[in-house]
Amino acid sequence: MAEGEGTARVDSWVWAVRLTKTRSMAAAACRAGHVRVNGERAKPAQPVKPGDEVRLRHAGRDRIVVVSRIVRKRVGAPVAAECFVDNSPPPPPREAVTAVPQRDRGTGRPTKRDRREMERLRGER
């Protein structure tokens, strides 16, 4: 079967078009339920074909792509971009991402008073 025809495993296809860094990461995402094909949870060996919608939750971001071509081997970035249509929402601007407050190094473990202040800031109390 030539490239671009038939079906391919979803984990292999997601890796081949460079949506994940490794195939094992793609398979782990499938097992964890972070990959959906046409709205249904996908197991790593589930086949995908042209026209299928693949939703991938990766690196804190949802990727929504429609399969336009099947590839089984990892391809270069320009070729990979031709294998799917990206319908993902744009990433949030950097200003919108809230920074996690960090304690200064060497200040030690927070006291009870410090902990209560942190809880109050977070809105837990």
Automatic annotation (TrEMBL):
Pfam annotation, one family: S4
CDD domains: S4
Domain of life: Bacteria
Bias (Basic and acidic residues): 114-125
Keyword Nuclease applies: no
Keyword terms: DNA-binding, RNA-binding
SUPFAM superfamilies the UniProt entry points to: Alpha-L RNA-binding motif
Region of interest: Disordered: 85-125
RNA-binding S4 domain sequence ranges: 8-75
Entry keyword RNA-binding: yes
Signal sequence range: none
Family: Belongs to the HSP15 family.
Name of the protein: RNA-binding S4 domain-containing protein
Species per Swiss-Prot/TrEMBL record: Streptomyces pathocidini
Lineage: Bacteria, Bacillati, Actinomycetota, Actinomycetes, Kitasatosporales
